[in-house]
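OP here, attaching both records as promised.
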Amino acid sequence: MIKRDFYLHKLIRNMWNGEIKVITGIRRCGKSVLLFDLFYNYLLEQGTADSRILRLELDQRRFYKFRNPINLCEYVENILNADPGEKYFLFIDEVQFTIKVRDEENGGIEVTIYDMLNELKSYKNLDVYVTGSNSRMLSKDIATEFRGRATQIHVYPLSFAEFYAYAGGDKRNALDSYMLYGGMPRIAALTDESDKKAYLQNLYDELYVKDIVERNGLEREDVLNAILDFVASEVGSLTNPTNISNALSSMRGEKINSTLVSAYLSHTMDAFLIQMARRYDVKGKTYFNYPNKYYYTDIGLRNARLNYRQFDPGHIMENIIYNELVRRGYSVDVGVVTERSRSEKIQREIDFVVNDADRRIYIQSAYRIDAEKKEISELRSLQLTGDFFKKAVIRMDIPHSFYDDNGFFHCNLIDFLLGDVEIF
């Protein structure tokens, strides 16, 4: 069992907070294992009796009757009312399998699982947790339905720290494997490389693409696949729907509308397959509409999308750093600073502007800096911010962390990913 203490502690912190806990994330990232194994085992270890944990897995035949939300609500209420002095936990997996029904006893009004769980939420001796997603309803939809009444705990694929804690061995070898195959939990348990590749490809063919197509009624699956390919090949590069539509139109010999591309990109983000980082004017303190950057939620899925033909470690490293920053809960943008000369204005990029409440750090991702010219180009944007927030360069080519003469913090990638250094 792979430990997911980062998320387990979030569940523990939010126990009995009066809200429904909604566990969200890309499919196959470990949401159900987190709830039904790791959190369940924690409760047992803390002395909670198994009979006090009500587990309803709605994809299992023996629980089909509870897909009717009235049946589910009445089942739970009967237990609570029979034993009001005891505290109970309710776990519901694959909540999207529930159906809408009419409550004939109350005028035939339409009832959903959200109505019933909101009713159960009023019981002071019940703590509710739900998870689930498929082509009918993504976990993002579930969180939206509970907005204002729920605590959302978003689960990502394995971080490198989680992956290494399970895999062990040489850190650099582990990182090389992680950069190639990513952090989907099943990957960590597979030893054969062909099995890893087949698993990731199967996720695409049998799960993610089909889910997006079926859920949104898409007519152009071929265009969706082309967009996924394009974004995978352009990870870490600035782009927008118009650029993508122009590129696809040229490659395919047909007009691909930018509005269609924009809609399809939104669907991939709704499925948590791709994430978007917006561009932020550091000095003007405003956001640009376009272009932006897109990153894959799991770098292994990105590589599988390209059939492992385009292994560019610099952009892969940047994608992994972005994922790690957002996983830690930071707000992450792409920074822009303008350098003015007598003849022109030059926009220079800061890979990541990272905010944590009133704290900020600027981060450059640099696979290696092996020449003075390269160092000047990498660090120039940091020098132009005109403020005193911390500035860091995360690198693969240094054995340990240090501060340079400009006060910039240079950090080894592995140390950063393992949490061995504090960036703030």
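Record two, same layout:
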Amino acid sequence: MSIIFAILIFSFLIFIHELGHFLAAKGFGVQVNEFSLFMGPAIFKKQVGETVYSIRCIPFGGFCAMEGEDEDTDNPRSFQKAAWWKRLIILVAGAAMNLVAGVLIMMIFFVPVKELVMPVISSFTDYSTVCGEDGLQVGDRILEVDGEKIYVQADFSLMLTLNPGEVHDLVVERNGQKVILDDFRMERHEVIDEEGNSRMLYGMNFTLVESPSLGTRLRYGLLNAVDSVRNVRLSLQMVFTGKVGIQDVGGPVMIVDQMSQVAQASKSWTAALMNMLLYGGIIAINLAVMNMLPIPALDGGRVFSLVVVTVIEAITKKKVNPKYEGYIHAAGMILLLILMALIMFKDIFTIVRR
């Protein structure tokens, strides 16, 4: 059931993404030839007016095929004949829908939550060495660690982990004022927990807010959404700097598997449902951000091409043949599909070996 639910979440996110393109195109009078959920050969087709609505057999992806999207045509309602700003909105609409969905899912997830942990220090243990007059104090709200904002309490450990070493730059809010702790030594100590496991801890505790107001919970959900956007950027930085390799990159198969594991580890079916919903919100935000990267075949690549072509046409007063842009995006799609296939087989191999 968890796998089915994960696939349904993916399908929903793909649907609203393509729906964003569809609604924007229809709103601006651009002719939509086909609106499809999934890829591959069609298993269902129905034409309503000028548009064919279809469901295809490969449960991944989807598309909103607009007239004249990658080729020149005399149709006055083609995508290429629309004003550049209308084309820009149509291209961005898909990612915008995913982003809005992700934010709403995050906010909905935290509505029933009864306790929230804030990045505000409530106490220190006896062994802690990070507290003191020149260090951290009770009541300090952690604002930044090594130049990265702390939106939620979990960010604190994450940012310290991303920057190995004991010396960090901290910014805290103390009594309404910002306090900067540059080159601050964050020393950890080995602690044996109740189960006999060794853990390295800083010896500081954060504030637990019980029965938070609805406004606080909604704001916490919004902060988690903002945090998810930042985490996409951090992940890309790690890939480009070589901190993670292709073996650490997962695709839809791995995501579905992880969602299934999260569901199985939950204490009840309602907890499993909510945890998978949170995962879906994170995926929605990831899709929104990744899709707007300036890579051919992605919406971000099309937006980049649109801006470049618009500037060239404004300077030269000559129209650029859209077929050349189509060639670039077609080549980008082929490379993207090859990469996705490689990641999919890697994910399947990893799961089978486990």
